[in-house]
């Protein structure tokens, strides 16, 4: 099951808001449709958002009917629209910058069709890099997974959140493929239920043993010695190692620390943002209050109750045991070692 697939002149997007009940694909042909799919979380997860935005940028170029003269201004509008979809996952900005850099390289090319083709190739290469990188994250994470382990994960950092294979779930998949005896506890992940709807669904499809728990059960399981390891994904990692991920990750990290349980982040280096010194500077998205007042259309709170709905939180670096990237595992001190991994080829 693929979150995204390029069909030559359109992008097939799996509607993750409908999973696991129904499997619906939308074939989109405009950058506006891609932007709306990202905003509404039809496609979600940091690397998948990045790849979708890159394809959206290429679709914008394909849609354009004007002359070469107005093309650059038009593409700036396309980029701006895609940039405004979700603020936290840095992969979105990273992918759009890569697309924009590619366009800049083509400034002497007059033929718009040649430019369109080059932008599609660049988007395909972003997607292909993500596939490769996720498999490498899986391999690099191998040393931290014991032969037998109960692993807790939060949200969905799986194939659905990437182009293929996943980051946190990539490490889990690789361990399973190596014959390790692992069991996963998946936090349901209120309010959007990525853990309940997506992580359990993905793991069950791959025959990886999984148990669903409500978010507020994690501490009790840790207290009972039922969790050996925590692995989660990331939306943005600051230069000092502070990491933004799905709301609730911070609570899990503090709990893991209190119980002496290793807490790992798995993420591609494209999620590391050295321009942001610490977690305090990471923009945190606030989503629609309705996500808390109702559950998939069914009212669960007074319709006019005031709501606070941050979609992400920041786990301070001091609670993070290590960051598993495609280039290796980064250990503390993160301010030194993240810099080193970013310059390593
Ligand atoms: O709001 P979402 O579903 O896009 O949030 C997703 C997460 O927080 C993931 O853990 C993160 O993007 C990593 S995905 C490999």
UniProtKB/TrEMBL annotation:
Listed InterPro entries: IF-2B-related, IF-M1Pi, IF_2B-like_C, Initiation_fac_2B_a/b/d, M1Pi_N, NagB/RpiA_transferase-like
Keywords (A to Z) from UniProt: Amino-acid biosynthesis, Isomerase, Methionine biosynthesis
Pfam families: IF-2B
Site (Transition state stabilizer): 155
Listed pathway(s): Amino-acid biosynthesis; L-methionine biosynthesis via salvage pathway; L-methionine from S-methyl-5-thio-alpha-D-ribose 1-phosphate: step 1/6
Catalysis: reaction(s): 5-(methylsulfanyl)-alpha-D-ribose 1-phosphate = 5-(methylsulfanyl)-D-ribulose 1-phosphate
The protein's Enzyme Commission number: 5.3.1.23
One Gene Ontology biological process: L-methionine salvage from methylthioadenosine
UniProt GO molecular function: S-methyl-5-thioribose-1-phosphate isomerase activity
Active site per database record: 235 (proton donor)
Classification via PANTHER family: METHYLTHIORIBOSE-1-PHOSPHATE ISOMERASE
Protein's job: Catalyzes the interconversion of methylthioribose-1-phosphate (MTR-1-P) into methylthioribulose-1-phosphate (MTRu-1-P).
Name the record gives this protein: Methylthioribose-1-phosphate isomerase
Native source species: Desulfitobacterium metallireducens DSM 15288
Source taxonomy: Bacteria, Bacillati, Bacillota, Clostridia, Eubacteriales
Primary gene name: mtnA
